[in-house]
UniProtKB/TrEMBL annotation:
GO MF, one annotated term: protein serine/threonine kinase activity
Keyword Metal-binding listed: no
UniProt keyword list: Kinase, Nucleotide-binding, Pyruvate, Serine/threonine-protein kinase, Transferase
Protein name: Phosphoenolpyruvate synthase regulatory protein
Length: 72
């Protein structure tokens, strides 16, 4: 699973929908806490994606899973 720092999530959402409940720090904290609890309950490995690009996240997942990248 992926997670993110609630403050970063709120900043991203604020760009999409200013001053909305969706973008509120309280909402983001609640959602991140819920998904992290779900990961723990179901023993799902979790990667914090706060400071990584999509490409870096993909590379980390491939490394964790022991898969080789293929260049086409």
């Amino acid at each position: 699973g992926l997670t993110i720092n609630p403050e970063r999530l709120a900043a991203i959402r604020e760009e999409r929908r200013e001053n909305s409940r969706y973008a509120s720090l309280r909402q983001c904290r609640m959602e991140v806490a819920e998904v992290e609890a779900l990961y723990r309950k179901n023993q799902i490995p979790c990667l914090n994606s706060t400071n990584y690009s999509v490409e870096e996240i993909a590379t980390k997942i491939l490394d964790i899973m022991g898969l080789n990248r293929r260049m086409y």
